C-alpha cells in the first residue's frame, strides 16, 4: 500500500473514470507530467499506462499505451527511477491538439487505496 504522502500527490489532480464504468485513475497531460516529476524521490514505480480521449462526454480508448517491467536483477530504486523516466518521456512526446481532452492512466507498482 502507498504511503499517505505519495497517495496525496497521486490524488491531487486525478480524474476518476467511474462514470464511464472503469476503475482507472487518469490525469490530463500537464497534470500527469507534474505528478511523475513529483514522485521521482519516492519509492514507487510506474508499470505503464494507457491513453484515453473524452469527446462529447464519451470516453474513447486511444489504444495507445506503454509498459515498463523491471529488468532481471535490477534494484527496485533503479527500476522506479527508470519507469518514471519512461512514463514521463512517453507522455511528453504524446501529441495533444488544442481543444482535445486526452487523459493518461498510470499503473503504479503499489496499490492506491
Structural description of this entry:
It is a single chain. This protein is an alpha+beta fold. The chain has a single domain, classed as 2-Layer Sandwich (Ribulose 1,5 Bisphosphate Carboxylase/Oxygenase), CATH 3.30.190. It has 3 helices and 5 strands; from the N terminus they run αββαββαβ. A hairpin with a 2-residue loop joins β3 and β4. α2 runs antiparallel to α3.
CATH architecture assignment: 2-Layer Sandwich
From the N-terminal CA to the C-terminal CA, the straight-line distance is 7 Å
Could you give the order of the helices and strands?
HEEHEEHE
| Individual helix count | 3
Topology (SSEs and partners):
Blueprint: H1 4-11, E1 15-16, E2 25-28, H2 29-38, E3 46-55, E4 58-67, H3 76-93, E5 101-108
Helix pairs in contact: 2-3
Question: How is this structure best summarized?
Answer:
This protein has 113 residues and is α+β, with helices and mostly antiparallel strands. The protein has one domain (17-108): Ribulose 1,5 Bisphosphate Carboxylase/Oxygenase, CATH 3.30.190.
What descriptors fit this protein?
113 residues, single chain, five-stranded antiparallel β-sheet
Amino acid at each position: 500500500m502507498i504511503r499517505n504522502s505519495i497517495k496525496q500527490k497521486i490524488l491531487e489532480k486525478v480524474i476518476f473514470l467511474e462514470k464511464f464504468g472503469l476503475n482507472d485513475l487518469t490525469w490530463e497531460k500537464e497534470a500527469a507530467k507534474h505528478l511523475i516529476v513529483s514522485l521521482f524521490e519516492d519509492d514507487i514505480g510506474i508499470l505503464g499506462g494507457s491513453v484515453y480521449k473524452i469527446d462529447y462526454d464519451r470516453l474513447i480508448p486511444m489504444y495507445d499505451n506503454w509498459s515498463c517491467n523491471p529488468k532481471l536483477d535490477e534494484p527496485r530504486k533503479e527500476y522506479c527511477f527508470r519507469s518514471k523516466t519512461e512514463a514521463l518521456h512517453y507522455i511528453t512526446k504524446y501529441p495533444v491538439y488544442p481543444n482535445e481532452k486526452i487523459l493518461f492512466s498510470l499503473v503504479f507498482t503499489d496499490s492506491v487505496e
